[in-house]
Design goal:
Layout (H helix, E strand, L loop, with lengths): L9 E5 L12 E11 L7 E2 L7 E21 L3 E7 L18 E5 L4 E6 L10 E4 L11 E5 L2 E5 L9 E15 L1 E10 L5 E8 L2 E9 L4 E10 L5 E16 L1 E5 L9 H8 L18 E8 L5 E8 L3
Parallel strand pairs: 7-8
Antiparallel strand pairs: 1-2, 2-4, 3-5, 5-6, 7-17, 9-11, 10-11, 11-16, 12-15, 12-17, 13-14, 13-16, 18-19
């Protein structure tokens, strides 16, 4: 007679596509056992060892060998360290599982994302994510092209914005973000060709004036946008169109650097743009921070006016 006394083992990792650091909750981890187990639930998850404060809560889903652990409740910047305790699950004949390795993700509620648009040969600047024409949106990835025919270009040579780009006649690029107010910066450049009448849109609405750039020239465009999605999470959707093509070399999405304020001048500026969901950032005045005015249209005739007054370099 053969007795099976081998305990199931488990390996814990951050879920594929999970940002690290991330500003999004819940944070997902993946637990993979070396054989099918049952009985694994939140009671078998340890959340000690991290530095992020708050009322951290784990939710476990899955079956067999693979489980998802979703952690929420963080209220400060810091690390979230997750483990699976010994005896958290058992195999078909009752052998209890061993403890897992720890897995750690850094939680930072401030949001920063930067993207370089090019080809697989494009050198990445530190902190940037590469986007090619094949980078299609998925929720697991959290960003990507959602529509349009997209072409990847890298001219090689000197590494600057005019070296690389994605080209489209009409395309949309989406990024999953928590609800909030964001600064969206779009860089457009092309080393060899004039690009005419390029139009940027945000959340389906045209923003700013059509843009034309000459070979080697870079256009740097900055906008404010408000996101209010279901369940506290939504998307920033950047649209590009051109005559005949539009280009994008880089994209930055960041939290605003200043508090929300309302001033008479801000109200006047937004009311003058009442039909637009976002207006370009004006240049800073002497001794004053620049103003971001973002008009987010809501149900019925309600409008949410968001104003940011910060020091913009």
């Amino acid at each position: 007679m053969t007795y099976d006394v081998t305990r199931p083992t488990v390996v814990l990792t951050e879920k594929a596509g999970e940002g690290n650091p991330t500003s999004t909750t819940p944070i997902h981890f993946t637990a993979v056992f070396d054989e099918p187990v049952t009985g694994f639930n939140a009671g078998g998850v340890t959340l000690s060892g991290g530095t992020a404060t708050g009322n951290l809560v784990a939710t476990v889903t899955g079956s067999g060998t693979t489980y998802d652990i979703a952690v929420s409740g963080m209220s400060s910047t810091g690390t979230v360290e997750v483990g699976v305790s010994a005896g958290a699950a058992h195999d078909a004949i009752g052998n209890l599982s061993t403890a897992s390795n720890p897995a750690t993700v850094t939680f930072d509620p401030s949001f920063v994302e930067f993207f370089d648009f090019g080809s697989t040969s494009t050198p990445l600047d530190p902190g940037y994510k590469l986007v090619t024409g094949s980078t299609k949106f998925s929720n697991s990835l959290g960003y990507g092209w959602t529509s349009g025919s997209i072409f990847s270009v890298d001219y090689g040579g000197v590494d600057n914005l005019a070296r690389h780009e994605n080209v489209t006649q009409n395309g949309d690029f989406a990024v999953n973000v928590p609800d909030g107010i964001y600064v969206v910066e779009v860089w457009m450049a092309d080393r060899l060709f004039t690009r005419s009448n390029m139009q940027i849109s945000l959340q389906g609405h045209a923003v700013g004036s059509p843009i034309t750039i000459q070979p080697g020239q870079t256009a740097d465009n900055t906008f404010g946008v408000t996101v209010n999605g279901a369940g506290g999470h939504g998307q920033i959707v950047l649209g590009l169109s051109g005559d005949p093509f539009a280009v994008i070399s880089a994209l930055g999405i960041t939290d605003p650097p200043g508090p929300i304020v309302v001033t008479p001048q801000a109200l006047t500026a937004v009311l003058e743009q009442a039909t637009a969901p976002s207006v370009p950032l004006p240049e800073p005045g002497a001794g004053q921070g620049a103003l971001v005015a973002d008009l987010a249209l809501r149900a019925g005739d309600q409008a949410l006016l968001q104003f940011l007054d910060g020091d913009w370099a």
